[in-house]
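User: I'll paste a sequence; please echo it back and then give the predicted structure.

Assistant: Echoing your sequence first, then the prediction.
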Amino acid sequence: MQSLECIQQNSLAINHLLARINALASERHASPGQRAAWQAACEDFYTRYDRLCFPGGAAMLERVRGGDPAAIDAAVQFLLADPYHFRSGYLKERLWRWLARLPLAAGARARLERAALAYLDRRICREFWAMCKAMPRIAGAGFWRAAAAQALPAAADARDPVARRATLLLAHGASVHAGALARQRFYQSC
């Protein structure tokens, strides 16, 4: 299992490789040499991406779907690290959906609860909604008490973003229908 720091470093490497492609893209038509440099940067990105994007690469992702305990630990570690790189949001969204349907050890559940509570401190992006749908299947009573404690300031200040996100999470925990309505109201208010 890779450490959180290693996952973050891999994410930074992906971002660096992609930035190199983007920097060379605007100049690729200027000369054959610059086009070759851009193509080399693209090939470097695509050969290294699988190894860098997820601990163990695509083979480990397939093992997550199969319920392999080592792969599940890698997925939980990835969600805890919360890296941000090319296509990471799609990957995290998929992991939340898969993990909600797999039998998890108590330690994995506790670490996923920590990862989910960390989402309340960040802006809402695509994987937030997958996390909200997954947590009713994963989380225990202590998680929902912690989420409710984060939502309490909503009564005092409706603009508090952490409380608003916690309220959305609690709506998903109440029922699928309540979560869908809360999500619809959220998008209408934006």
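The radius of gyration is 19 Å. Residues 54-189 form one domain.
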